[in-house]
Structure formats: structure tokens, C-alpha cells
UniProtKB/TrEMBL annotation:
Its EC number is 1.3.99.-. Pfam families: Acyl-CoA_dh_2, Acyl-CoA_dh_M, Acyl-CoA_dh_N. InterPro entries: Acyl-CoA_DH_C, Acyl-CoA_Oxase/DH_mid-dom, Acyl-CoA_Oxase/DH_mid-dom_sf, AcylCo_DH-like_C, AcylCoA_DH/ox_N, AcylCoA_DH/ox_N_sf, AcylCoA_DH/oxidase_NM_dom_sf, Mito_Isobutyryl-CoADH. It comes from Zestomonas carbonaria. Residues 16-92 form the Acyl-CoA dehydrogenase/oxidase N-terminal domain. This is Acyl-CoA dehydrogenase YdbM. Transmembrane segments: none annotated. Residues 131-221 form the Acyl-CoA oxidase/dehydrogenase middle domain.
């Protein structure tokens, strides 16, 4: 299925339950191998491109999918049920495309090129923000990555961590500062093939192992002047666009929540099948016949129902950043609880590498790392309650 055919048929007609269930099954086929080998899922992303899904969030005025947040959430959730590392790369793509469409600071020709290449070539983009010295930029501070001003452009030097998707990215949106007396701060756009980019393959995590979130080092990377696509003087930051910030935070919480909810749903599906098939000789019946197992699965169903209703509200209503953060935390904790309950029921079987439950557990724990983290979300909610935010 090509991009054109997908868009001609219409998003609503293609992204139905049957299509998404098939997509989940297809992506699940190699999920164990990607996890075991920490291999980047190039084939999965190529499949998503063939289905037209890499450009689903691209501006409809540019020929893209123009999907709304609720539609994007359904795709992310289905991909995550199959292979969540692929879903995280796709999530970053969708978040960037959503805010790119109405960003007035980007040169129009670069904006068109990034969107066109996503649609035609499956080009991926992500932000590169985290640094060794700085940690998470959500906690504040100026970047140590520096763009040195030249007569005809910039020379970029710096070091980034946790660059999700770097083995497959075409465009790198690098958070940096200039070397001016009053530095500019913001985003410099870098094509992956530009000389001077070095990848340090350091990503070897417990979960989400196939995201390829390696380190990237920039050494005198030469960029045109107009590739400083979204920058501002550090002493004169732009006025806060509260609705835009709230919309981005809502989208981020929705799509990240959908990933880890998808992991939990995959764990639930495996558990239900295992309990229905496992029949110890001493019992003479499947474990699913026991009241204890039925009660535990009922509790899991309750957690997943809570997640679905919260993600429905988050993707369809203009909630505040505070509310979005609280829902992201709640959905993540519910997802972790689902997999922990499944492990409690299955014992050694659940922890065996012969079964996927231990993989789901390692993956779902990563949901706690993503912004907003639990402490930040709760502090913001507390400050808001006291009128201090």
C-alpha cells in the first residue's frame, strides 16, 4: 500500500480496528529479535512508510495525512502493541511534524522539504536536546552545543545523548547556542549526511532496546545560515505562547502514554492466552478457571479501562499542561501495574526469556523516564493547587 493510496482512501477508512490489529501482529513478529540484539527496526519503519504512516501527522496542506491527535494516538498504540521501540521513533516523528506545520520561524523551503521527504522517502526527524553536562533540558539550563558564526554559515560542535532513532534519522533538529556575545538559543537543522557527525553506539539499556538512542558528536559540522531555523536571543526569549505549549504537552503526554499502554495491552493479551492454556496436572483445568486468576485479570482490565478513558480525554479535549502531566503519570503507573500483576500470576514462567512478559516489563518501566517525570508532574499540580504556578 503506497502513501498515495492511503491518503486517497482516507484516514478514517484505513485506520480501522482490523487494519491496526494486522499492523500490531506484523510488527510483533520480530519484536523479540530486535530486543535481544538491540537492533534498530529499519524494516518496521520501512513498512510504516509503505503504509503511509510516517507522514500521517504532516500538514494536510502539504499533501500529508493531517491526522488529528486522537488518530495519531490509535496508530502509536497499535505499533506499540507490536514493537514499542518502533512506536517511540514514530512518536517523535509525529510530535515534530505537528508543531512544524504552524511554526512561523522556519524558512518555508526547509519546512516544505522536511515534510515532502517524510511523505515521499519516509524521512525521519527528531530533536537532539540532552547533553552530558546539562542532563534533561526540561530541568533548565543553556546548551553546551555551540554554533560558531561564519561568513557563509555555521560550524556546529557538541555532544548529544539519548538521540532516539539516530540510525534511521534523516533530519536532526539540534538544540544549541551561537557563539555571539549575546548568544542565540534554539534549533539548528542538520542533515544526517553532513560531514562531521559521529555516532557513538552506547545505547545498551534494559528496555526499549531497539530505539537506537545512541550518542551523537558534532565536530565542525558546516551548516548554511538559514539552517538556524528557530532561534532567539538568550536575553530576549519569545513571549510564552501558553496555548501552543499546552497543546504540545498534551500531544506528548498522549502519544507517550499510548506507547506504554500499548505495552501493557500486549502483556495482558499474552497473559490471558497463557492462563487459558496452562492446565497443571494437579488442577486438571486451565488456570483461567480459578477465581484468583479471574480476579487479577479483572483488576488488569480496570487499569486498562482507566488508561483508555484518560487517553480518550487527553487526545480529544484541550486539557492544561498540568492535567496532561498527571494523566501521563497515571497511565504509565497503570501500565507498569498491569505487567507487574501479570508477573505475579505467572512466576518463573513470566520471567523466562522464552516468554515475552519479561520483555514487556523491561519496556514498560521506561515510561517513567520520559518527560514529564513523576516528580515534575506532581510538583506542578501541587503548585497549581496552591496558586503558585
Amino acid at each position: 500500500m503506497s502513501v498515495v493510496n492511503l491518503l486517497e482512501r482516507g484516514i478514517e477508512n484505513v485506520l480501522d480496528d482490523a487494519f491496526l490489529a494486522v499492523l500490531s501482529r506484523e510488527l510483533a513478529e520480530d519484536a523479540e529479535r530486535y530486543d535481544r540484539d538491540s537492533e534498530f527496526p529499519h524494516a518496521n519503519l520501512e513498512r510504516l512508510h509503505r503504509y503511509g504512516l510516517l507522514g500521517l501527522a504532516t500538514d494536510g496542506r502539504a499533501g500529508g495525512g493531517g491526522a488529528n491527535l486522537a488518530q495519531l494516538r490509535r496508530v502509536i498504540g497499535a505499533v506499540a502493541v507490536g514493537e514499542p521501540s518502533t512506536a517511540l521513533v514514530l512518536c517523535m516523528q509525529y510530535l515534530y511534524h505537528r508543531r512544524l506545520a504552524d511554526n512561523p520561524n522556519w524558512p518555508e523551503h526547509l519546512k516544505r522539504r522536511v515534510m515532502r521527504e517524510a511523505l515521499e522517502e519516509g524521512a525521519l526527524i527528531n530533536s537532539l536536546r540532552v547533553e552530558p553536562e546539562l542532563g534533561s533540558p526540561a530541568r533548565g539550563g543553556l546548551p553546551q552545543t555551540v554554533a560558531k558564526r561564519q561568513a557563509d554559515g555555521w560550524l556546529l560542535d557538541g555532544h548529544k545523548l539519548y538521540t532516539t532513532g539516530i540510525p534511521g534519522l534523516t533530519w536532526l533538529a539540534v538544540w544549541a547556542r551561537s557563539d555571539d556575545p549575546v548568544p542565540l538559543v534554539g534549533t539548528w537543522l542538520v542533515h544526517r549526511d553532513t560531514p562531521g557527525i559521529r555516532i557513538v553506539e552506547s545505547w545498551d539499556h534494559l528496555g526499549m532496546r531497539a530505539t537506537g538512542s545512541h550518542e551523537v558528536i558534532f565536530e565542525s559540522v558546516r551548516l548554511p545560515l538559514d539552517h538556524a531555523v528557530d532561534v532567539y536571543p538568550s536575553d530576549r526569549p519569545p513571549a510564552l505562547d501558553a496555548p501552543a505549549v499546552a497543546d504540545f504537552n498534551r500531544a506528548m503526554a498522549t502519544l507517550l502514554g499510548a506507547i506504554y499502554d500499548g505495552v501493557a495491552r500486549a502483556a495482558r493479551d499474552w497473559l490471558v492466552e497463557w492462563l487459558a492454556q496452562r492446565a497443571p496436572a494437579s488442577l486438571g483445568a486451565p488456570l483461567s478457571s480459578l477465581g484468583r486468576g479471574q480476579e487479577a485479570v479483572g483488576q488488569i482490565e480496570g487499569w486498562l479501562l482507566s488508561n483508555r478513558l484518560q487517553l480518550d480525554a487527553l487526545s480529544e479535549r484541550p486539557l492544561t499542561s498540568q492535567e496532561a502531566g498527571l494523566i501521563k503519570v497515571a497511565v504509565t503507573e497503570n501500565a507498569v501495574a498491569v505487567v507487574e500483576k501479570a508477573l505475579e500470576l505467572t512466576g518463573n514462567h513470566g520471567l523466562s526469556r522464552h516468554h515475552p512478559l519479561q520483555r514487556h516489563y523491561r519496556n514498560v518501566l521506561c515510561g517513567r523516564v520520559h518527560t514529564p517525570q513523576r516528580d515534575s508532574a506532581l510538583v506542578l499540580a501541587g503548585k497549581t493547587a496552591f496558586g503558585l504556578a
